C-alpha cells in the first residue's frame, strides 16, 4: 500500500515538473481557455434547460393521457354498475306490479301501491338517462388541458351522483309500494 502511494506521488511530481518546464501549465490556465470553458458551460446549461422543458412537457402529456384513461375506465365501471341497478330495479318493479295485479284481481285495493310502482318506474328511467349522460361525459374526456378535463370530469361526477340519487329514490318508492300493499292486505 505504501509503495503504491509513494509511486503515485512520484509520478504526479514528475508530471508536474514536466508541465512547468514546458510552460504547458500556463497554457492550460490561460485566460482564453477559462473563457472558452465558461462559454461551454453556459451552452451546456442552456441545452439542459431546453431538455428539461421538453421532459416536463412530455410528463404533462403523459399525466393528461393517464387522467383520460382513468376517466374512461371509471366511465365503463359506472356504465356496468348503472346497467346492473337498472336491470335489478326494473325487474323488481315488474314483479311487484304483477303481484299487485293478482292482488287487485283478488279484490284488494292496491291502487295507491300501484301508483307508487309507476312512479318508481319513471324514476328508474330518469336514473338511466342520467347514468347514460354521465358515462358519455366520462367517455368524452380527451387529453387536453388539465382544467378542461377537470371541468368535464366534475360535470360527469355530478350527473353520476344524480343517477345514484334517482336509483335510491326509485328503490325507496318500491319499498313504500310494498308497505302500502301489506296494509291493504
Explain how this protein is built.
With 185 residues, this protein is an all-alpha fold. The protein has one domain. The protein is 91% helix and 0% strand. It contains five helices and no strands. α3 runs antiparallel to α4. The mean pLDDT is 82.
How many structural domains can be distinguished in the coordinates? 1
Distance between the termini: 104 Å
Order of helices and strands: HHHHH
Identify the overall geometry. rod-shaped
Number of strands: 0
Q: Which stretches are low in confidence, meaning pLDDT under 50 for 5 or more residues running?
A: none
Short description:
With 185 residues, the protein is mainly alpha-helical.
List keywords for this structure.
single chain; 185 residues; mainly alpha; 5 helices; 91% helix
Layout of strands and helices, then pairs:
Layout: H1 2-21, H2 24-28, H3 31-105, H4 111-139, H5 146-184
Helix pairs in contact: 3-4, 3-5, 4-5
Amino acid at each position: 500500500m505504501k509503495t503504491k502511494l509513494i509511486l503515485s506521488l512520484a509520478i504526479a511530481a514528475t508530471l508536474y515538473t514536466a508541465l512547468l518546464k514546458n510552460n504547458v501549465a500556463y497554457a492550460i490556465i490561460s485566460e482564453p481557455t477559462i473563457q472558452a470553458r465558461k462559454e461551454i458551460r453556459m451552452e451546456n446549461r442552456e441545452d439542459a434547460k431546453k431538455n428539461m422543458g421538453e421532459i416536463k412537457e412530455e410528463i404533462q402529456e403523459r399525466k393528461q393521457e393517464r387522467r383520460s384513461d382513468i376517466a374512461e375506465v371509471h366511465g365503463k365501471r359506472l356504465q356496468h354498475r348503472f346497467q346492473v341497478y337498472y336491470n335489478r330495479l326494473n325487474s323488481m318493479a315488474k314483479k311487484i306490479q304483477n303481484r299487485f295485479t293478482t292482488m287487485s284481481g283478488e279484490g284488494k285495493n292496491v291502487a295507491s301501491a300501484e301508483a307508487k310502482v309507476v312512479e318508481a318506474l319513471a324514476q328508474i328511467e330518469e336514473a338511466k338517462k342520467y347514468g347514460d349522460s354521465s358515462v358519455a361525459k366520462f367517455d368524452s374526456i380527451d387529453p387536453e388541458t388539465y382544467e378542461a378535463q377537470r371541468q368535464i370530469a366534475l360535470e360527469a361526477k355530478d350527473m353520476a351522483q344524480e343517477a345514484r340519487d334517482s336509483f335510491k329514490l326509485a328503490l325507496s318508492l318500491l319499498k313504500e309500494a310494498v308497505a302500502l300493499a301489506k296494509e291493504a292486505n
